[in-house]
Amino acid sequence: MHVHVNAAESVDGKLSTREREQVAISGPADFDRMDELRAGVDGVLVGVGTVLADDPGLTVKNDERRERRERDGAPPNPARVVADSRARTPPDAELLDDAAATYVLVSEDAAEADVAALSAAGATVITTGSGRVDLTAAFDRLKEYGVERLLVEGGGELIFSLFEADLVDRLTVYVGSVVIGGRDAPTLADGEGFTDPDSFPELSLTDVERVDDGVVLAYDA
Ligand code: NAP
Fold first, then answer.
1. pLDDT band at 137 (very low <50, low <70, confident <90, very high)
2. CA 202 to mean position of chain CA atoms
3. How far apart are CA 163 and CA 144, in angstroms?
4. Nearest C-alpha to atom 26 of ligand 1 is from which residue?
5. What's the pTM?
6. Among protein residues, the one whose CA lies closest to atom 42 of ligand 1
7. What is the spatial distance between Cα 98 and Cα 220, in angstroms, rounded to a whole number?
8. Ligand 1, closest atom to CA 133?
9. For the residues 45-58, what does the mean pLDDT come to?
10. Which of 11, 87, 174, 191 would give a disulfide with 160, using CB separation of 3.0 to 4.6 Å?
11. Residues at CB less than 6 angstroms from ligand 1
């Protein structure tokens, strides 16, 4: 599977405010770039923290891009995927609407009733790992459903785990010309953090592009 992480951060590396409220960090040209990224993948993954904070739909917004996907024999929108160990995704979440297939990755600790509610809402529930979702095993299961190209749209807890498990192939970051601040505001990679410098994931910078009033940094991982 090819895993591409894309996020927008402030100059000081924050994904949102300390209240975890969604903020517009990028502008229309970057939204369009992100829409093109979505149009080119089989699935879009977020953590349940992002679902609870932002309630995203994760669909392709541009009509021509959806038509292009259909001409290529793909569904108009990529599948939506949530990493959600305890099945906390609300059954009325936007990404459970009928615009695309939705996979919820849970762990063995998820309560049966919550899993049943998500299934009743139309999700395909994939169980891996105890405590937290085992992302490597979950991605193997997603491949069985035809998800070979995955775009990850955050947030910081999930992105850290993906780096920790060595699952990231490509990273693009929009750096907006704004300072958000706050020691408790989510950053691009939160989690426990790496302590041994030898374990820091090393990235290779492949491109720098000015977009809106910011820059997009592209890396191979
Ligand atoms: P997140 O990364 O979206 O979700 C984290 C949650 O995912 C964890 O708490 C965990 O909850 C679940 N999870 C399941 N398996 C996991 C695993 N193996 N590793 C890590 N997490 C796993 O949440 P977040 O870091 O709080 O980010 C949300 C914030 O980021 C919001 O404020 C949102 O607005 C912002 N955001 C910004 C951007 C941007 O591009 N600027 C993009 C997305 C989000 P369980 O243990 O319950 O499963």
1. very high
2. 20
3. 23
4. 49
5. 0.97
6. 154
7. 34
8. 15
9. 97
10. 191
11. 7-8, 15-16, 20, 22, 25, 46-50, 53-54, 83-86, 88, 132-133, 135, 153-158, 161, 186, 190
Pick the atom of ligand 1 nearest to 85's CA: 48
The residue whose two tokens read 């369009």 is: 32
Q: Which residues contact 7 (CB under 8 A, 6 or more apart)?
A: 15, 153, 154, 155, 159, 173, 174, 188
Distance CA(94)–CA(163), nearest Å, equals: 27
Q: Atom 45 in ligand 1: which residue has the minimum CA distance? A: 85
Confidence of residue 95 (pLDDT cuts 50, 70, 90): very high
121 band by pLDDT with thresholds 50, 70 and 90? very high
Per-residue pLDDT band for 51 (boundaries 50, 70, 90) equals very high
Confidence of residue 22 (pLDDT cuts 50, 70, 90): confident
Which of 104, 103, 107 has its CA nearest to residue 85?
A: 107
How much distance in Å is there from the Cα of 212 to the middle of ligand 1? Answer: 26
Return all residues near 90 (Cβ < 8 A) that are at least 6 apart: 51, 52
Q: Give the count of alpha carbons within 13 A of 67, CB side only.
A: 3
DSSP string, 156-206: HHHHHHHHHTT--SEEEEEE-S-----TTS-BSS-SS---SGGGSPP-EEE
- Spatial separation of the C-alpha atoms in residues 130 and 114, rounded to whole Å: 16
Q: Is 131 helix (H, G, I), strand (E, B) or coil?
A: coil
Distance in angstroms (rounded) separating the CA atoms of residues 108 and 4: 27
